Structure formats: structure tokens, C-alpha cells
Amino acid sequence: MVNEFLLWWAQQLRASLPARLVQDGAGPAARGLAVALRLLPAGQHGVEVLARRKGREAALGHFALDAAGIAALRAAVAGQGVAAVLRLPPELLLEQQVALPIAAERDPERVLHYEMDRITPFAADELFWTWTVERRDRAQGRLHVRLSLVPKARLLPVLDALRGAGLRPTALEAGALGGSVRRIALDRPQPARWRRRGLAIAGAACAILAVAAVAVPFAVQSVRSAEIERRIAALRPQAEEAEALRRRILSSTAGTDVFAEQRARVGDALATLATLTDVLPDDTFLTELTMRTRIVTISGQSAGAARLIAALAAERGIRNPAFAAPVTRNEGTRAEGFSIRAEMVP
pLDDT of 21-35, one tens digit each? Predict the structure, then answer.
């Protein structure tokens, strides 16, 4: 909880800084290599390598990403021993404005990771991406985020060629509108606490497996026997009740009246389902239906939830239909979520 609060607080401070000071973390490193990608005709690629020293850049040369060019690039950067960033042409950078629920501000990255295939044509694992909070609209309960992304498929051949030359870029840089620069990390680090927790869990799992390998063969038979006895004990009251009811039906000429009485008291589930199927319009579907003593509760989505009350009230077999919860609207499908409670007439 403390780590999550500190992460949220750092994001709040970062979002409050002027854009010229933030620049998405893309300011040039004091020392390193900048590898500028050039798109050549016929699907070929080339790079321009620049050495960064104290905020200045000096060109080391232009290299094609073929066998000869990679060999020349390896010789040019030999002995540099510094980190590199891959600078992309602006046309490779894709950006999108995304509106998230305000509750997502505690961890927007996790929410974007799960929603990536919905808000973009790609899965999260198919992209190099980063995000920046641009605006918080607490009145509307929305968090506006700028999503910057580059498809991996465009860059994997280039990264493989650079690794063959001894370069391992740690980040991507690309220019955006307005002259700002976006910086996307190639490796998304996981928090150390999760790594430590993973090691602890793995150690505990190994210990449990070792104990289980010794104890399970001796315990299986006892567990199965106890499970069978438990099931028998659990079913015995139901069996006794069923037997008593059978004797009552056989000994009484009013056996059919017993069923009719119970059906009138608790309701007929099949008849209820048939009635709702006929009444509800085609643009409505149910996700949940419960029925207790003729009180039926239905939940689902519809193009117009308000008109369902009128449709149900017009049915002779349904009384007192009313919303059991507020109607919600799904922004993605334009459908309205509803929950309605009504009484089925015997």
C-alpha cells in the first residue's frame, strides 16, 4: 500500500511539471550513443550513429544494415562501452488519446496493458509503448492519457541487426507534433519487490511439492473415503425428504394438488422464462435471472432500458416491475445496463 501511494504521488508531481521540463523523459543523455534509423527504398534500413558528449552530438558515420554495414558499424562503436538509444523517424510513432475512469490513476499502466487490444489494433506484447497523464477531469470522473506506441514488428529486424553490431538500445526516441520528443523504454522493468516475492513464492512452492510427494500417496485413500462419507451425510436429509414426499403423494389422492400448490407459491420457472422471452425486445439480452417465491430479478443490457418497464407492466402475468438498481451506460457498446425486479402472477 505504501509503495502504491508513493508511485501515485510521484505521478502527480510529474504531471504538474511544465511540459518543457518533462519532455516524456526524452532529454538526451549526457553520455551515450544515438542511433538514428533511416528508412531506405525497397524496405531496406540504414542508421546514422551519433556520439553524445555533454549535451552535444558528433556523427560517427552512416551505415546500411546489411552484412558489410553491420561489420563496419561494429568496428565504429568498438570500445565505446556506453548505452544507446534508437532514434526513429516521426512516421513510425503512433499516438492516441485515451480516456480512462478516474479510479485508474493509481495504476494507469496496468489498465492500459489489459485494454490495449481494445483501444488499439495491437496486443500490449506487440508494441513498444509508454503513456503520460495529460488531464484529470474529476467532475466527469475521467483520466485523459496520451498513449505513445511503436509496433514491434517494424523494429525487430533493426534491433537484431544492431545487436549483431554489438549495440543494445535501451530506449526509443521519436519526434512528435510541436517539436516534443517521446521516449519509450525497450525493457519494461518489474518492481524489485515483485521479484523478491516471486522468489519467495517459488521457494515455498518447492517445499510444498517435496512434502506432497511424500505424503500424498498415503493420504489419497483416506481423503477419498472421508469425501464419500461427507457426501453421503450431506445427501441424507434430501433423500429422507424426497422419500417422505413420495410416500405422501402415494398415500394421498390429492398428490397433484400438492404440486400445483407449490408451483403457485414459488412460481413456474419455465413459464417465467417463456414469458420474458416473448416480452423483452430483440435488442435486449440477459446476463442474470433469479427467482424466489414468484419474485424474479433480471439483469442485462438493452438499447433502451426505460422502455422495458412499460413492456413488462403490459404483460398480464407480471406485476409491479421496477428497477432494482440504477441504469448504467456502456460507452463502448452504447447499451444500457439494467436490473429489474418484478412479481410473477400465479
Answer: 444 444 444 456 777
What residues have CB less than 8 Å from 315, skipping those under 6 apart? 275, 279
Please state which CATH number belongs to domain 2-189: 3.30.420.380
* pLDDT tens for each residue of 299-312: 999 888 888 888 88
Query: How many angstroms separate the Cα of 157 from the Cα of each of 127, 150, 164, 170, 324?
Result: 14, 14, 11, 16, 57
- Mapping DSSP to helix (H, G, I), strand (E, B) and coil, where does residue 16 land? helix
Residue 191 has what DSSP assignment?
Answer: P
Q: Which residues contact 104 (CB under 8 A, 6 or more apart)?
A: 111, 143
* Domain range annotation of the chain: 2-189, 264-344
Q: Mind listing the pLDDT tens digit for each residue in 154-198?
A: 888 888 888 888 888 888 888 877 778 888 888 765 544 444 565
Q: Which amino acid is at 279?
A: V
Q: Could you report how far apart the first and last alpha carbons of the chain are, in Å? A: 54
Strands annotated E in 141-190: 142-151, 169-175, 181-185
Length of the chain: 346
- Name the fold adopted by 264-344: Gyrase A; domain 2 (3.30.1360)
Among 140, 180, 147, 167, smallest CA distance to 23 is for 180
